[in-house]
Amino acid sequence: MTAAAGGVVGVLALQGAVRPHQHVLEGLGVTTTLVRSPDDLESVDAMVLPGGESTTIWMLAQANGLAAALKHRLDGGMPALGTCAGMILLAGTVLDGRADQGSLGALDVAVRRNAFGRQVASFEADLAVDGLAGPPFHAVFIRAPFVERVGDGVEVLASVDGHPVAIRQGAVLATAFHPELAGDDRIHRMFVGSLAG
User: Fold this and answer.
1) In whole angstroms, what is the distance from residue 161 CA to residue 130 CA?
2) 178 in active site
3) What is the pTM of this model?
4) What are the pLDDT digits (tens) for 2-26?
5) Which position among 21, 84, 124, 155 bears the catalytic label?
6) Nearest Cα to 48, choosing from 184, 180, 183?
7) Are 29 and 21 in contact (CB under 8 A)?
8) Would residue 180 show up in a list of annotated catalytic residues for this protein?
């Protein structure tokens, strides 16, 4: 989905790793815009939900009505890419979250927050990701979640120690890691390629 095709990808810009996603997408020729409100959402054809602090992002999105607007668009089939906290926000069930933490329910999965440990347990790993040609993807995990339960219709694209860390369901793609920090645009390219189809 490029500027020539007339599509716009919104990047959720309430908190977290916003600009790196914009940089990668714009390097692929994609028109992007920052989304902070329901009004901003009206101009986009797809969304990226970046890493950050999932509870904070959820509370901010709830406060200004953006959570409900996002859920409506996702329920209607809007494509999305969620990374790290974005995966948590897209999940159907969030395990070990705060009592007031909700999610958008776009993926039939149960996700565990900080599943690999706290900040000091952050790590990097070379992953074989289904659908990506070439060498393994160098994935950066920072206070990362993983998927504990996968529902019907969810495709597991990559795992670490048996835990799914990259998944896809319909038009929604999610990773537990930060592809925008890898210096490798193949995850974003996969997402953008799905928009053209």
Assistant:
1) 16
2) yes
3) 0.93
4) 443 448 999 999 998 899 999 999 9
5) 84
6) 180
7) no
8) yes
